[in-house]
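[job 4471] stage=fold_predict status=RUNNING
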Amino acid sequence: MARAALDELKLETILFMPTGAPRYRTPAAASGEHRVAMLRLALADNDSYEIDARELAPGASGYTIDTLKELRLELGADTELWLLLGADQYAKLDTWHRPGDVKRLAKIAVFARPGISLHKGVAVIPMKPMQISASEIRARVARGEDISPLVPAAVADYLGRHRLYA
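[job 4471] inference complete, writing structure tokens
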């Protein structure tokens, strides 16, 4: 997905931002520390990918609008900022905290997901929709199934060594 976005939008960098523990949703099953470690393994050797763990900081709101406001202040008004979303999350965007401001602070590009239709006018990153989700990968780990075709080998090894999602 990141490679497709880099190519389609002619981006210099994709910034991966693991979410913290916002009040409005169930916290992630793995700690922020583990999720950042897995991201580092998955993104190794690619200079176009960076990790920003600000949403894991104590007191972080977890709202996308707050993160975008911080990024906009850091990067300046002239820097092009894209928010990349799966179609499932895009379909819920109007229920987010201050969705109008989210749309004002960043351009939005969407990855298609099976079974979710997108209305005209939204920037879609062209790529073959993936038939697997992170939830399904975690479920496969819990069932002891092989996930090697779905994640980088270093991440699969990390999951096993730390017994995450098992």
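[job 4471] summary: Helices lie at 2-9, 32-43, 64-75, 87-90, 99-105, 134-142, 153-161.
[job 4471] exit 0
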